[in-house]
Design goal:
Blueprint: H1 2-18, E1 32-33, E2 43-45, H2 47-55, H3 59-67, E3 76-82, E4 86-91, H4 93-106, E5 120-124, H5 136-154, E6 158-165, H6 170-186, H7 201-214, H8 223-248, E7 255-258, H9 260-264, H10 267-277, E8 281-284, E9 287-290, E10 301-304, H11 312-325, E11 330-332
Parallel strand pairs: 5-6, 5-11, 6-7
Antiparallel strand pairs: 1-2, 2-4, 3-4, 8-9, 9-10
Helix pairs in contact: 2-3, 6-7, 6-8, 7-8, 10-11
């Protein structure tokens, strides 16, 4: 409809110029927007406001002269000049009925096109940390990402959906320590809960599962080993909850990609070595920095801390390199 209206306005402009009502010259492309309120019509253009300084005429006068040459009785109920010179278009009801009729006749094929031409696109979304259940904010992102994926599929793209699991780092250790502390409490043992630990009731639920699976067995292991077991099993339980919630919400994924796999396969180190070879890394204050400011970032970013631990930014670089090497032509994060 926008293309149809745009062609109508451009033709009216040519006629007004041909009849001497508006001067000749190069004209900007016609911008059509949806008005902020229904009473202002179905579409609106500010073309008269844009042209007025060039023509040395009041915007409303430009709009009025333009309307004299506008022909569109077959689908326009009326056209009005509003405010300082906006032109508002009101479509006939039959136009909407015809659109509904076409949608019903074409069914699931309505709106389908081949813009994507079968090219591969990876849409990565939700990707909530596996340290707790999903919340309403994740639901919003899930709905948005899945809707975008469906639109891309209708537009002819070969879409794959991916969930990125941040399953390493400080957060996972903290999850393990939180669960292990609650596990000890449930078994009547003294425990010290981490100051920044995860305090939700779900941590007790996970701890109860550990008591069912291991009894008092984890108490017989070295604490660091027990914490790792608690972290691993907690992550598994939380991800099962996340998958179940998403599936009930109607959102499914083709891939669940683990951050840890980037380290197990040596991909993070290979990327850092490549960046260093290109002169894009440097040392400062004992840390290793990436020259991201050279690519438009507001500042450079740390990829390896002074402690020797890599950052999430380093993982993200390796993850995106991995995506490209898998052959995707477009990446949506």
């Amino acid at each position: 409809m926008k293309a149809r209206l745009r062609a109508l306005i451009e033709e009216a402009l040519r006629r007004a110029v041909a009849e001497g009502e508006l001067p000749e010259g190069e004209f900007p492309s016609v911008a059509l927007e949806y008005p902020p309120e229904e009473r202002f019509g179905d579409y609106a253009t500010n073309l008269a406001l844009v042209l007025a300084p060039r023509f040395k005429l009041p915007p409303r006068e430009v709009a009025t002269r333009l309307l004299k040459h506008l022909e569109g009785d077959d689908f326009l109920a009326r056209v009005e000049v509003a405010g300082p010179g906006f032109v508002n278009f009101f479509l006939k009801d039959e136009v909407w009925f015809e659109a509904l009729r076409e949608a019903c006749l074409r069914g699931e094929g309505y709106g389908r096109c081949e813009v994507g031409k079968g090219r591969r696109v990876l849409v990565e979304f939700v990707s909530a940390n596996p340290t707790g259940p999903l919340h309403i904010g994740h639901g919003r992102i899930a709905a948005f990402g899945d809707t975008l994926s469906r639109v891309l599929e209708l537009a002819g793209w070969r879409v794959e959906r991916e969930y990125y699991i941040n399953d390493i780092g400080t957060q996972m250790e903290l999850l393990g320590r939180s669960v292990y502390a609650r596990y000890r409490e449930l078994l009547g043992e003294e425990s010290t809960f981490p100051e920044d630990g995860y305090r939700g009731d779900y941590i007790f639920e996970i701890a109860r599962v550990l008591t069912e699976r291991h009894g008092r067995g984890l108490l017989e292991r070295p604490e660091e080993e027990a914490v790792k077991v608690a972290a691993s099993e907690a992550e598994g339980l939380i991800m099962s909850w996340i998958r179940e919630d998403l599936e009930r919400f109607g959102v499914t994924f083709d891939h669940y990609f683990r951050e840890s796999s980037l380290y197990e396969g040596g991909e993070v180190q290979r990327v850092l070595d490549e960046l260093k070879g290109r002169g894009l890394l440097y040392e400062r204050d004992g840390a290793l920095w990436f020259k991201s400011s050279a690519f438009g970032d507001e500042k450079d970013r740390v990829v390896v801390r002074a402690s020797g631990a890599t950052t999430y930014f380093a993982s993200d670089i390796a993850y995106h390199v991995n995506k490209l090497r898998r052959g995707y032509e477009v990446l949506v994060d």
